[in-house]
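The pair is set out directly below:
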Amino acid sequence: MRKYRTAALMTAALMLLPSCSGRLVPPVDGSENRETSGVTYGMSDTEKLPHDEKAEVISVDFSEKDYGKIPYLKKFDMFASTWAWCNDFSGYPQSDLTNLSRIPAVAELLPETVRTDLFMGYWGIGREIGKGDGQDGTTDGEYRLVKNLTDALLSGGLNAEFIYFASPVMTGGGISGDAWKSVKDGAGWRLLCRNVSAYFREHGMGVRRHEIWNEPDYYITDPEKDGVYFLGSWDDYINVYINGAKGIREGDPDAETGGVSAAWMNRISKNGELDRFLQKTLAEGVLPDYVSWHFYGSNGGMKMLEDYISGARECLEKSEAYGTVWQNLNEFNVSLDRKVTSGYSMVRLTLDAYQRLLYATDIARVAWTSALDRNLEGSDGQALIDPKTGERTPAYYTQWMYARLPVQPVMTSELSGVGVMASAESGRAAVLAYDSAISARTVTFDMKNIGFDRADVTVYAVGREHIQNRISSNSPVKLAEYRNVAVSGDVKYTVTVPENGAVLILADSCGGDVPHEKISPLADRVVRTDYWYNGRDDGGAHAWVSTKSFVASLGSGNSGRSRGTACAVTLDGMENEKLTVTASHSDGIAGTGAVCGIMTVYRVNGEYARTVYHGFEGAEGKLAVPLGTGREYDEFSVLPSGESIIDLRAEAPEGWDGRLQLIFVINGAEKNSGAEFVVGLQ
């Protein structure tokens, strides 16, 4: 993972010369132009953007944040099956080094995790785990292939998310017939899960989430006779989850633990199975942190997605005890048809799906299926990067474009047939426009109040007519570059949005990554993430934090059913630190009982003991969030707009052990209001 060297960077910054309004570039050293990251910048460049006064116009005002839209949250992770990482069914399989080398390309899409099934004791990267004869999840040899993957992910700034599955010899399973599909020894399963999670923790393998089994509800006619991945009744699966969750939390008390992993969430949410799962796990003290499910757009198309979302939501709203359980849509694609998933219609389908899933604010994370796939004859998956050729698909380039968008939307006008996503943050203004009517359109983007005087403007495109080398390039076709452009006034630019394609306009004022693309020094301190929902609904309240960049967003939404929410990030090793906070907010966050800001919660002797609520002025309501101490805050401190510092040691109680929970929370604010933050270390 990238780390900041603060002192070195500060020294380097003093040596740099400013280019276009805040951009820091290396000294010119006797030449007018200097090559930086493949782009030549020069102080003499003053190009203006070309535009056509006769073209249809979409107006974008970057000074007007649109709190009526759900922000462009980077909540999209990745899934890749176990065989993407070891394409060998021989007695001593090897890691797929080609796919491992493609992880940096996956990281360009800004996921936080890559989810993979271990396939313990079977034909997967976890095939050696729990095989017996001394292999019980505690020996290094069992993790040879697993560690190759986690090392590669950590090098790319990503974390692993593992499915504890299948059943090895140690738990009464094995590779003979369907033995791997059922757990015969519950105590052995609990011990194995404890050993595995403890190994991950003790060896610093960066495993963020631990999920128990894959699609236990998927069967042909009878779950006890022809289950595809699990043989047994639903109650059998619940027992597997309970034993496994107890074991995982014994091995790693901080583990984020999830279950269900349903193939048919629309079915188990209606027939009582999800209700029974939640009730029994709550009674056993192992209520999941998240319930997970899959959706591929098949058997009814994307319209069925509504039944999946609403079904899970209705079950989770039946008890306040479920208020901290979040939804993880951890296998998602719009289609199973490779002809669709490899084509240009995926530009529109992907962005439409993203917008729908953003609107479902109680789905905290989504994992795209799939980032990579196995390189075997007959394999025909939906990989974003072709396993045989390395060719990137249009869906890959679409997700690359979305990843470049700042989080906070701004106001735009509308034009039928063109989808528009525009946003801004410190140092970047961006417009992503895509064809939503299967027809090319030439559009002039009238961009107002970009927020800085000069910018380097880059225009990208994905579309059938924009040919490029998809094997070597992670970014889409670069249509144009304009350096050191004056952007302080009304800036117009005309471009054709391709049929079944998209264009991305980036105006950057500073070199390097913008805030949401950086990896914060706090990323290495993250222990886990938790959520709380005061009601759930489409367009409801949202709370989101990137555990990589520590850009955070809060919003009240526009639903009367969803009144508030919180996202908590637990951090270790914070005892000598001060936080930097850059914050801004809309009107409407203040009011009687309203809460909007950051809670810092301190642990003493293994228990959270003190909460300081840093809230915006007027948002001083009392609220007991069922995270941290679970009580109302002990102290209120006004959080100013702009930049501020939180001295953790100064406000911490005596005996603080360095563990901190940062809770970003909003509750009781007016509709369509919100706030955004960038948090770092001083």
